[in-house]
Write a structure and sequence with these properties.
Length: 337
């Protein structure tokens, strides 16, 4: 009887141990994901409608981490402080070449600039200010959110096209996007980048106008791409695909015209801004283009990266296809067809 009791105890212990391992293995994966601007690169799931997602809280949980621009995300990703990042084309290339992060993988589109019929970032100057042409920028102060960001790169490319040396002929100062309007009005800067939602501010548009656009400077841009490290993606592939599926479900809900008013309210609550600030343009053709299937435009991305090389910002011309792994987002999109 003693042996039988011992056997039962061992068996019970084994069952409990197995159950404990199963429970632990079923815990949701925490996906730490960076973002800069609400409604632009921030995941829809941070402020999305309850009931749209299928896997959030089950296979993964989302942890949004705010940055002032994409270049600082390079350090965070390299240090293992973040898992998925919406890299600008410029930051992605710099991460590969300068930070030697050859294991980066492009897994999805975030948004694109300059797609026909959609929004492109304007570079704004005061209507009554001294800047009337691009040539007039020489000797003046230009704002950049972060040196090396996508919008920063576009401005520098435009300067070089017009024979203005971005290092010696102008002065760049860094400023967060929300602060640029005040600095322009106070004449601390002479040119600012108008990313959404700030570029639709009526009080800004009353006194400022576009000198040129990002599309004028560099054409169509695969502005932001979702990127992770190969080892993380391999270890947590199921959770990442589940997240991408949920994000695509949310995207399709947000861009459906019948949901527009509710979508605006959700974003306004998250960003703590009046809904009227978003009503006329967000999630419409007045906004950045987002591919409904989540696939980035790799041809546009290659042109963007190649331009960096031609302008001397990169030592070599990277092949972006080498770093693309679109199988995850393709699987996610296939699930919701």
């Amino acid at each position: 009887m003693q042996w039988k009791a011992l056997a039962l105890a061992i068996c019970a212990t084994g069952v409990l141990s197995f159950t404990g391992v199963t429970a632990r293995s079923a815990e949701p994966v925490k996906l730490r994901i960076g973002w800069v601007v609400p409604g632009a690169d921030s995941p829809f799931l941070l402020y999305g409608k309850t009931g749209i997602t299928k896997h959030e809280g089950t296979s993964y949980v989302l942890d949004g981490v705010h940055f002032n621009g994409t270049p600082p995300m390079i350090t965070a990703l390299a240090a293992g402080e973040i898992d998925l990042v919406p890299f600008a084309y410029s930051s992605f290339a710099l991460a590969v070449e300068n930070a030697h992060m050859n294991d980066l993988r492009i897994i999805a589109d975030v948004f694109q600039d300059g797609v026909p019929g959609y929004y492109t970032n304007p570079e704004l100057v005061l209507k009554d200010g001294p800047i009337k042409t691009i040539a007039d920028l020489k000797g003046h102060v230009l704002a950049s959110n972060v040196t090396g960001s996508a919008v920063d790169m576009a401005v520098r490319a435009m300067l070089i096209k017009h024979h203005i040396n971005p290092t010696h002929d102008v002065t760049f100062v860094e400023a967060p996007f929300p602060n640029m309007k005040a600095e322009l009005l106070e004449h601390k800067i002479d040119l600012m980048t108008g990313v959404v939602p700030f570029s639709y501010d009526p009080s800004l548009l009353a006194v400022a106008h576009p000198l040129f656009t990002q599309k004028d400077a560099i054409g169509r841009s695969q502005m932001l791409i979702l990127v992770g490290r190969a080892s993380f993606l391999k270890a947590h592939r199921g959770a990442v695909v589940d997240y991408l599926e949920d994000e695509l479900r949310a995207l399709r809900w947000f861009i459906t015209p019948a949901n527009h008013d509710e979508a605006v309210k959700l974003l306004a609550t998250f960003s703590k801004q009046p809904a009227a600030r978003y009503q006329s343009w967000v999630f419409t053709h007045g906004d950045y283009y987002r591919d409904p299937s989540g696939k980035p435009d790799l041809a546009a991305l290659q042109e963007n990266v190649s331009l960096q090389h031609k302008l001397g910002f990169l030592k070599s011309d990277l092949s972006v296809k080498k770093y693309a792994d679109l199988a995850l987002v393709e699987e996610a999109a296939h699930r919701i067809k």
